[in-house]
C-alpha cells in the first residue's frame, strides 16, 4: 500500500521539477563569474561562500516562479499548445506539465507564488548578511525579482515587447547585484563581463523565438521574431551577435587585460558557427543548441580569464 501511495507523490515531485525547469541552469552560472571576479583572499571566505549559496537558492526560486507563470500563461492562451503540438515527442511534452496533465493550473499557480516568496526571502537574507550594502544592488535585485515574476504574468513584459531586453537584462543584473554585495561598486571590466553574460541567454532565446513565431503571433506575444520579417529578424540576430563580438574585442578599453580577447576567441568562433547554422543552413533548433553551448563556453572562459588575471 505504501508503494502505491508513494508512486503518485514521486510523479508529482518530478512534475514540479519539470515545471521549475531545474535542468536549465544557465542563468545560475552568473555566480561562478562573480566568484571568479572576487579578490583571491575573498573567494574562499566562509561569509562569501554563504552569501553565494543563499543567492543561488534565491535565483533558483525566482527562476522557478518565472517559468511557472510563463507556463500557466502559455497554457491559458494556447501558445504552448501551438508550440508543443500533439505531434511533439513525449519527452518534450513532459517539460510542460500543464499540457501533459501531470499538474493542474491551481497547483502551478500556488507553486509559482510559493517560489516567488521564497526567492524574495532568500535574496533579502543575502542582502542582510553580505559585507556590502550599496543601495543600487538592492534596487537591481528588486528589479530582477519583479520583472521575473511579471515576465509572463501581471504586466506580461514578454507579451509587450520587453522579452529580448529582459533576457539580457536579467543576466546582467545577476552578475552586477551579487558582485556589488560581495565587493562593492564594479569597474568597467566587471560591467563588460556582466553584459557578455547577459547576452548569452539572449543569443539562444532569439532562436527559440524564431522557432515559436506562429504560436507567439497567434496570441499577440510581441517578440522581434514575431513582429518583423524573416530578413529583419535575421538582421537583428546578426546585429546582436556582432555586437557581442565587438564588445569582446574592445574589452581592453574598459579595463580588461590586453589578452582578454584572445581568451574569448573560441566564443567568437562559436558565434560565427551559430550564425552559419541558423541563418545559412536554416537549422533553427541546432542554432539554439549551439547558443546554449556558446554561453556555457563563455562562462568557462570568463572564469578562466579572471583566475589568471588575479595572478599576472
What gap, in angstroms, lies between the N and C termini?
64 Å
Main pleated-sheet profile: none
Mean pLDDT reading:
92
Let me know the number of strands: 0
Q: Based on helices, strands and strand pairing, what is the structural class?
A: mainly alpha
Helix percentage range: over 70%
Query: How are helices and strands ordered from N to C?
Result: HHHHHHHHHHHHHHHHH
Radius of gyration: 20 Å
**Strand content bin:** under 5%
- The low-confidence parts are 1-7
Number of helices: 17
Task: Sum up the overall morphology in one term.
Answer: globular
Subcellular location: Membrane
Transmembrane segments: 24-42, 48-69, 165-182, 188-207, 228-250, 256-273, 294-311
GO molecular function: prenyltransferase activity
Keywords: Membrane, Transferase, Transmembrane, Transmembrane helix
Tell me the layout of helices and strands.
Layout: H1 2-20, H2 30-37, H3 40-43, H4 46-77, H5 79-83, H6 90-93, H7 97-100, H8 105-129, H9 135-149, H10 163-183, H11 188-211, H12 213-218, H13 224-227, H14 230-250, H15 260-263, H16 265-280, H17 284-309
Structure characterization notes:
The chain is an all-alpha fold and 312 residues long. Helix 8 packs antiparallel against helix 9. The N terminus is likely disordered. It comes from Actinocatenispora rupis. This is 1,4-dihydroxy-2-naphthoate octaprenyltransferase. It is a multi-pass membrane protein. InterPro entries: UbiA_prenyltransferase, UBIAD1. It is found in: Membrane.
Summary?
The chain is mainly α. 76% of the residues lie in helices and 0% in strands.
